[in-house]
Design a protein that fits this description.
Radius of gyration of chain B: 13 Å
Shape of chain A: globular
Distance between the termini of chain A: 32 Å
Largest sheet of chain A: none
Largest interface: A-B, 48 and 47 residues
Order of helices and strands of chain A: HEHHHHH
Number of helices of chain B: 2
CATH superfamily of chain B: Rhodanese-like domain
Strand order of the largest sheet of chain B: 3-2-4
Strand content of chain B: 15-25%
Largest sheet of chain B: 3 strands, parallel
Structural class of chain A: mainly alpha
Shape of chain B: globular
Number of domains of chain B: 1
CATH class of chain B: Alpha Beta
CATH architecture of chain B: 3-Layer(aba) Sandwich
Distance between the termini of chain B: 16 Å
CATH topology of chain B: Oxidized Rhodanese, domain 1
Number of helices of chain A: 6
Oligomer: heterodimer
Helix content of chain B: 10-25%
Helix content of chain A: 55-70%
Order of helices and strands of chain B: EHEHEE
């Protein structure tokens, strides 16, 4: 009902194509994210230049990569093993994309600086998307059933995608925006794939 | 918002049609607006949705690109 009223307001304001979602969010079968509109943004708050955003994002991808590779290594269920392998490769691809962006940005002569000389690696240990320490997430995963680990992973991925899109909307500098445009585009592709894998698994 | 807004003819799309639409389009090609309250958004929302509670919508129209299709929930 609220969304119909909203659609009415928007049409009244002259917008041509407005669609209200029937049944609201309860009818939504896709991924859901959680948290307030600025959640996860504090992590990037210290960055003053696009290069620093790239480095900070790189460390998150690195953390997620470690988390997924470790799961893939330790789990015995074949399907889950392959799924986490695939996820860890996707994170690696994001890292390469970020390194590539940095190289395009600064020129090949400076490529070796990335990311350590742009921003030193986090002192308290590897952090993954969602802000959790990799070591804590792995401890949590010990002894959990696969379903729970998959649930955590899917929510991490949905929240990361959501964060990238919110960062993109929030940032004004075009080069900084570009970092999150590229990441969210890549994320979208692998989320579609992850969702169908999850449907098979459950 | 006036009572009239409730009676304007608007298109409703089933969630599945919206999911398909969003899958096919790039996120730059549409607006996705969550018009519920902040607490509801916090609990769960569609990835990338912009929160503009219904009561603030009229004052925040400038945040929505009028040239793109807009999905609201």
């Amino acid at each position: 009902m609220r969304s119909r009223a909203a659609a009415g307001i928007l049409s009244g304001a002259g917008l041509k194509k407005v669609y209200s979602m029937g049944g609201g969010i309860n009818a939504w079968k896709g991924l859901r994210a959680e948290g307030p509109p600025d959640s996860g943004m504090a992590y990037f708050a210290s960055a003053t230049r696009p290069e620093e955003l790239m480095a900070l994002a790189w460390y998150l991808e690195q953390g997620s990569h470690s988390f997924y590779s470790e799961l893939s290594r330790t789990l015995t269920d074949r399907v889950a093993k392959d799924l986490f392998k695939e996820l860890s490769i996707a994170e690696e691809r994001h890292q390469k994309t970020l390194s590539g962006l940095y190289r395009d940005f600064t020129g090949p002569a400076f490529a070796a600086e990335f990311p350590e000389l742009v921003i030193p690696s986090p002192e308290k240990g590897e952090i993954m998307e969602g802000g959790m320490l990799v070591s804590e997430a792995l401890d949590w995963a010990k002894g959990k059933v696969i379903r729970d680990i998959l649930d955590l992973s899917i929510s991490l991925e949905a929240n990361a995608y959501d964060l990238h899109l919110r960062m993109k909307a929030r940032l004004e500098d075009p080069r900084s925006k570009e970092v999150f445009t590229v990441l969210s585009r890549e994320e979208k592709e692998h989320l579609d794939r992850l969702s169908s894998l999850l449907e098979q698994k459950t | 918002m006036s009572i009239i807004d409730y009676f304007k003819p608007v298109s409703t799309w089933p969630a599945e049609k919206i999911r398909q639409f969003m899958k096919e389009k790039s996120t730059d090609e549409y607006n996705l607006v969550d018009v519920r309250q902040p607490k509801e958004y916090e609990k769960e929302h569609l990835p990338g949705a912009k929160l503009i509670p219904l009561g603030e919508l009229k004052d925040r129209l400038s945040e929505i690109d009028p040239d793109k299709p807009t999905i609201v929930y």
